[in-house]
Amino acid sequence: KKGPKPTVIWLHFMECTGCTESLLRASHPPIGRLVLDIINLEYHETLMPAAGKQAEEVLHQTMEKYKGKYICVVEGAVSTKDGGIYCKIAGKPAIQILKDVAKDAMLVIAIGTCASFGGVQAAAPNPTGAVGVKDVIGVDKLINVPGCPPNPYNFLATVSYILTFGKLPELDKLRRPKFAYGRLIHDHCERRAHFDEGRFAEKFGDEGHRKGYCLYKLGCKGPVTYANCPVIRFCDVGTWPVGSGHPCIGCTEPNFWDEMSPFYKS
Length: 266
Ligand code: SF4
Ligand code: SF4
Ligand code: F3S
What we know:
Subunit structure: Heterodimer of a large and a small subunit.
GO molecular function: 3 iron, 4 sulfur cluster binding; 4 iron, 4 sulfur cluster binding; electron transfer activity; ferredoxin hydrogenase activity; hydrogenase (acceptor) activity; metal ion binding
Enzyme class: oxidoreductase
EC number: 1.12.99.6
Bound molecules: iron/sulfur cluster, FE3-S4 cluster
Keywords: 3Fe-4S, 4Fe-4S, Iron, Iron-sulfur, Metal-binding, Oxidoreductase, Periplasm, Signal
């Protein structure tokens, strides 16, 4: 559908920038095309040339000019403890920035598990009171695209769906698009036949591991993790963690740092 390019304000809070790094490696469309032709990316601290006062001005001008019409993308968790002082940008706590920017956004997309559920910052004992976006602004206009990092195509497909159909894709109870997070890793894993037949890698590097047997006994969390990694794979190289011999650690699920550990068993 042809129309004005949607304006995007991309906020970085407590995170590693891995989600942006992952998106930079997409090639359908490549990031250049996305940023120059498909969306109007007004504010993104990693990609924009402006810094400091200039960048702040862009943020405020964009919020004003596109009030009620822009998409806010959030990468990273939000500190809530002690008034949110553990993450500040331009002297302002991230929690306040998020409230201000989200208020007039038509849609908020939390990219990555940090923004969706708190991520590594929220792991026990969570010293900064880190939370996901939903705990600050609620879920009304929120879509979560979790993963650490998420597959860039799940983010791009979410944006494309909204631009094409003018509505949100169907979401699960955690606000994740069902087209990407509707099935368990375990349900479409190429090692599943080995699981069903009881053929397991017992140790990293053993014969079963080298033969591509199931990684369940090494700690694989594929049976409790919803994501399309085995189907969509990563970075156009045709593989994904389990395909490369590494157990799934459940990175698309809430609190995976606490609830999916120990990651390895051997
Ligand atoms: Fe980094 Fe993972 Fe957080 Fe993305 S979700 S910012 S990759 S720690
Ligand atoms: Fe399931 Fe993991 Fe085994 Fe694949 S490797 S079949 S996801 S337990
Ligand atoms: Fe994450 Fe498991 Fe996919 S660790 S990248 S959900 S295979």
